[in-house]
Amino acid sequence: MKIATFNANSLRTRLNIITEWLRENAPDVLCIQETKVQDKDFPLPQLADTGYNVVYKGQKSYNGVAIMSRLPIENIHTGFEEEPQDQARLITADIAGVSIINTYIPQGRDIESDMYQYKLQWLERLRIYFKKRFKPTEPVIWLGDFNVALEDKDVYSPETLRGSVCFNAQLTEHFKKVAEFGFTDLFRLHCPDGDNYTFWDYRVPNGFKRNMGWRLDYIMATQPLAKKCTKCCIDKAPRAKQKPSDHTFLVAEFKT
Questions:
Q1: Is residue 84's pLDDT more than 90?
Q2: Any catalytic annotation for residue 118?
Q3: Active-site residue among 52, 56, 129, 145?
Q4: Cα–Cα distances in Å, from 163 out to 170, 172, 177?
Q5: What is the helix, strand, coil percentage profile of the chain, to 5?
Q6: What is the pTM of this model?
Q7: Selected catalytic residue, list 52, 104, 116, 197
Q8: Domains in the chain: how many in total?
C-alpha cells in the first residue's frame, strides 16, 4: 500500500501537477491540504478520469482538505466531533481497514497573535479527538501539513528560525503530546538525516534551489502500520515544476 500527502496551496491551480504525479506514481491514497475551494466548486469533473474516489471538505479561498483513493472510502468524517462546522482542516476515513486522518494544522501567523493560540488549542483538540475515536493498537495513519518543525535538522537555519511560529519549544511540546497517542514519524524512521525538507517558502529568493526549506509535512503511523512501513521519502521533483506549490509530496509504502 502506498500513501502520500501534499499541500497543494490551491487544488485548482495545481491540478496538472497532481494528475501528472498520480499517473507517474500511482499511490493507493493521496491526501491533499489547502485545497482553497468550497465544496460546490470542487473540480470533480477534472479528476473523474484519474480512477480515484474523492472525498473533501472545503471553504472559500482558505484551508480545505481532501482524500483521493483507488480503493473504496468508508466512514467519512469532517471536523472535530464537538464542532463539525470548524474550519476545513480535518477529514478522516477508513480505507482498506486503515483509519486515515488528514489534517491541515493552523500555521499560526505570528507567535504573538491569537492565531498562534488557536494553533495550540487546535493541537490539544486533536489530542483529545484521537483518544476518543481511535486506539494505538489499531492501524491508524495521521498525515498532512502539520506546520511544525520538530528538530534543528528540520529547518535550514535553526539558529535564525528558532522561536518562530512553526519552530519553537512550546509548539514542539504540544505536538509531542499529540504524538504520544502512539504515533511513529515514518520519515524519520527511514531517514534520520537533515537537509530533507517538504516546504520551501516562495518569499525566500531562490529558496528551493538553495534548499532553504522546512520539514512541515508528515506521515505518522501507529505501531501496527509503522512496523510494516518499508519506505518513506520526499519527492522534490514537483517543487521544481512551473507554478508549483510551496510544498511537495511525501510518500510512505507498506507491505501487505
A1: no
A2: no
A3: 145
A4: 9, 11, 19
A5: 30, 30, 45
A6: 0.97
A7: 104
A8: 1
